[in-house]
Amino acid sequence: MGPIDILRKRGYKVEALSESYYRVNGRIEFSVPHGKWFDRKTGDRGQKPLDQIPFLVAARLKEDEVIEIESNLLVGYSYDSVRKILRIEFRKPEGKARFVGEYKNVPEDEVDAFINAKSKGSFFLKHIKPNAAYTYRRIPQEELDAETTDR
């Protein structure tokens, strides 16, 4: 199974731009058989073996993907592995605006442990929230509204 089939099977939207050039989810472009790729959002480019293209696409699109989780405390998260930023959306009290926090300098292995934790809320409270190495910023509502409008 080639990279195009794998990406489609994983639910990504793959469009053919030419006989050998493809775009995934409107953002990542790559060529077959060369494995050259281009990220339209960041301007990054490079070359990978074709069997690595699905992993590259998943890692680069993961930062845009908000993954919903079952938790009494948390609604979902997203992670930008390039900038090491973990965003967490918290459950909001009735009638309140959504509340999103951003934690910088969070290594990928910590995010993997968070993802695999039985209780993500407990893991967050024990390992991420109190860690002084992770710079915290509450995302202002205006910024969240602007992001929603841009999508």
Task: Kindly describe this structure.
With 151 residues, the chain is of the alpha+beta class. It has two domains: 3-62, no CATH class; 67-150, no CATH class. The protein has helices spanning 3-9, 53-62, 108-116, 120-128, 141-150; strands spanning 14-16, 21-24, 28-31, 36-39, 45-47, 67-68, 74-80, 85-90, 99-104, 135-138. α3 (108-116) packs antiparallel against α4. It is elongated and about 50 Å long. The two termini are 32 Å apart. The mean pLDDT is 84.
Q: Care to count the β-strands?
A: 10
The number of domains: 2
As residue ranges, the low-confidence spans are none
So what's the overall shape?
elongated
What is the SS-derived class?
alpha+beta
**Helical amount:** 25-40%
Biggest sheet strand order reads 1-2-3-4-5
Mean pLDDT: 84
Number of helices: 5
CA(first)-CA(last) distance: 32 Å
